[in-house]
Amino acid sequence: MTDQLSTLKPYIIAADIGTTSTKTLVISRDGKVLGSHSIEYPLFTPAADRAEQDPDQIFDAVVQGIGEVVRKVGVKPEQVLCVSFSSAMHSLIAVDKNTMPLTACITWADNRSAMYAAELKRSGLGQQIYSRTGTPIHPMSPLLKLMWFRDNEPGLMKETYKFIGIKEYVFAKLFDRYVIDHSLASATGLFNLENLDWDAEALGQAGVTPDQLSELVPTTYRVEGLSAAYASAMGLAKDTPFIVGASDGVLANLGVGAFEPGVVAVTIGTSGAVRSVVTKPQTDPEGKLFCYALTEKFWVVGGPINNGGIVFRWVRDQIATAEAEEARRQGIDPYDYLTELASQVKAGSDGLLFLPLLSGERAPYWNANARGVYFGLSLSHEKKHMIRAALEGVMFSIQAVATSLERIMGPAEVIRASGGFARSEFWRQMMTDMLGTSVTVPDSIESSGIGAALLGLLAMGEIDDLAHAHNWIQVGTAHEVNESNYRVYQQLTSIYTSVYHQLKDQFDAITAFQGQHLRSPQS
Ligand code: ADP
């Protein structure tokens, strides 16, 4: 690092474009978060299988968010080394030649292409495409969304100049350049992991040509040349370098310092994920795990779950409502109150199991029709058992994904945990006992933004190696396995798994019933 530059340009700005909000951070060169700002935007669900956003609301949040955090911390334009990006994966927007959106931003949660995913999987071609692209065959994937457009909106396919994701939209508006980093490209289902280029067969299925997609660039690629108006809105110089960066998932691994063999990152926010870094692309013979790029040297293998912290929120809002109300009356966070109640019950909830598959599930089952189940209820079970069983259910899901990961990566030596769930010491210990591995929790919770800032330093040539993360990331609390709880969970795992498999057909039947019922007028 040049000393002169480090005094002249002491700050890195990270912009983390998420599904619920964009978070912007000012980070010092020694990894301290000096200020942050968060701007939320809505997710529109005009039909049960749609989940869309307004690309311009997100673009405005990025510009305004950077401006706000720069002002908050009092950063001068010439003090910024670079702005580096993290972004949610799998989004798709069709734009015309003037970068005017022809569609909404279709998010990972949009399910309109579910039938296409099921069909492609059945055909066997799905597994072949997955094994080259690393993106599981699922309606989240832009490949499947494009197949849906191909058949349902043929006119749009002709009118569209480019099909892009939300971060490409931001860069196109700011710099008039269509660039996609290898990381987000590897989550489109269209990108060949071996030759780092668009996959001809996947593009053929999607019905698009390479010139309808953005230019592929490394995650460390930089772009400069802001207009005076945007530079002033963000409080930056016109020549401030913008680093394209990577996806929020792979950057979270970097931001918790989990990028060495044997270190597994588990995140549980609203949803959740289990991930590990490898040094070359690796896919799963069973097609259950993703493989996404971080840089050309590091790849992230893992699995996402839909039903993470959202399950606890559902328990708080729908089941333990009186208890949550009591907590509020006492001025206690309802989540803390409910975990305290759950802690009064032994591990295994006295034989009550909960399959937390409320919104269908991605890894490891990849079954959109899966639903929640309480199993083993008896008259002796109380509300606190139901709370504990729900918290344990989320951990059974995490454990199932961790087991899939172990199949191809070998056992985890240590787990790095992050996300909202980590606020609870009780829930963290439950994870430790369920996985049978020590769990540590990094001090900072902004893992994707920190990962983006580290990648920014690498892109600017200020560090040689991402191992620099070790100088940045302080590991806080550590949890050790309680062997007797571990044995209880081991015993229950086989019952949990077998309940899921035995109910597979019934999940399809009940989902079909729910579909009909929701459509029919109330009698
Ligand atoms: P997001 O995915 O929006 O970034 P967060 O990472 O903030 O979400 O996680 C939110 C989830 O964290 C909540 O739904 C809840 O399940 C969990 N959570 C938040 N606070 C607590 C707490 N004090 N104890 C246990 N769980 C908590």
UniProtKB/TrEMBL annotation:
SUPFAM superfamilies referenced in this protein's UniProt entry, alphabetically: Actin-like ATPase domain
PROSITE patterns (UniProt xref): FGGY_KINASES_1, FGGY_KINASES_2
Lineage top rank: taxon: Bacteria
Biological-process GO terms, alphabetical: D-gluconate metabolic process
Residues in Carbohydrate kinase FGGY C-terminal domain copies: 265-460
Keyword Ribosomal protein recorded: no
Recorded GO MF terms: gluconokinase activity
EC code(s) of this entry: 2.7.1.12
Keywords: Kinase, Transferase
Pfam families: FGGY_C, FGGY_N
Domain Carbohydrate kinase FGGY N-terminal: 11-255
Family the entry assigns: Belongs to the FGGY kinase family.
Protein name as catalogued: Gluconokinase
